[in-house]
Amino acid sequence: MNRLNSSMRKPSKSFLCVLILGTLPLLARADWLVATNGERFAGTVIAETSSNVVFESELAGRLTFPLSKVEEFKRATPVALTNVSVVSVVVTNSPTNAASWKPPGVGHDGSDWVQLKSGEWLRGEIKYVQNKEVEFDSDELDQQTLKLKDVRSLYTAHRMFTRFDYGLPLYGIVVISNDVVTVQSEPPVSLSRDDLIGITYGSGKSGMRNWSGDFSLGLSMQSGNNEQTTLSTSAELARRTPGTMLLIDYLGNYSQVNNVQSADNKRVNTTYDVRLNQDWFVRPLQLEYYQDTLANISYRLTGGVGAGYYVFDRTGLEWQLSAGPSYQYTHFENVEPGQSDSATTPAAVLNSYFKADITQRLTFIQTWQSMFTDDKSGQYNHHAVSTLEFEIKRHLNLDVSYIWDYLQNPAARADGIVPQKSDYYLTVGFGVRF
Predict the structure, then answer these.
(1) Of 184, 201, 218, which marks where a domain is finished?
(2) What is the pLDDT of residues 71-91, one digit of tens each?
(3) Backbone phi and psi for residue 294, each to the nearest 5 degrees, phi listed first
(4) pTM of the entire structure?
(5) Is there a single domain that holds both residue 81 and residue 131?
(6) If DSSP states are collapsed to H, E and C, what string results for 268-302?
(7) Taking all residues of the chain, what is their mean pLDDT, rounded to a whole number?
(8) How many beta carbons lie within 10 A of that of residue 110, not counting itself?
(9) Which residue range is the domain that position 375 belongs to?
């Protein structure tokens, strides 16, 4: 009895060995796959065949790699206990100190590199770092939009322009390590990541790298002046530098009913913003072209300037407000006899842009533009778009948008009919980012 009590009070050495060895594989929380180009992914090996490896990546979802593109994969295999006295522990190439591991090509192969906090490494080309996001063209995953807070390290292969809060752009190779951003300029500069505004390529041959955009095509159901089905098209083209952004935005709707055109409206907005610091920006250029024949607007041109403020500017949440004076010219489709077919007026413009990540793949975007004019030009109008953007895969999105166009005092047509004040659109379409 004493021997039994003693053994219960003090575990045997063999039992402790079983316990310690049995927990070792649990420390390897993920399998790892290293591609031949040096990119490294964390996740789970789903299946192995004679020609492919199916891998579930924490970053990119399920991927299929031909064996010709796999340098190695490191599997964390759970313990198999077949007998109390015999322990079989199998750990194949279990990664050690994954956070500090660095691909041998970093700084030597002419490519940019990004390391995520999960330990994964991506090789490719950095498009830009702006608004707490990293746009990265990965060799394996194509173009990716990463949250800056999820990036542990970043290495550029070539010199880039970098802008910090309250400072002029610096030019040099950039290294981000944890919370420090180092620009290898003359002299080298190291500042906190919190002070970073943006990183982009410069002009010249690399100028095209500063451009990005997306295109969406979808079906629209309209109510208001018309009840019909409409083809909706939207596009966005942006050019970014560390302290500036040129944005060209297009939205158009067109439809026919019984081979008769029943809708035709187009809107093109162009803005150019200059970032003063992390809070304020100026808008030296804001232009809009608008056409809606059913609202009796042959075309309307608006040009102005403005200034803006970032209410929120952090990863996953952005809200900016801007306002400024403008001048507007409107040419009407047709008017009543004795009335002028055009109107000019000073205008005040108020803009709001709000963007929030609901989940990792679902984003809500709300844009609002209000214009205050004289009575002949409509007195007041606004254009509001609410969008749910779901990332299907990589650069393919599913967009659901609700659009509300409003004009306080529409101009009467030649037949005396006054168009309705509001037009509503519900669009569902697929978008492609490039």
Answers:
(1) 201
(2) 887 776 543 433 333 333 333
(3) -70, -25
(4) 0.72
(5) no
(6) EEEEEEEECCCCEEEEEEEEEEEEEHHHCEEEEEE
(7) 83
(8) 8
(9) 210-433
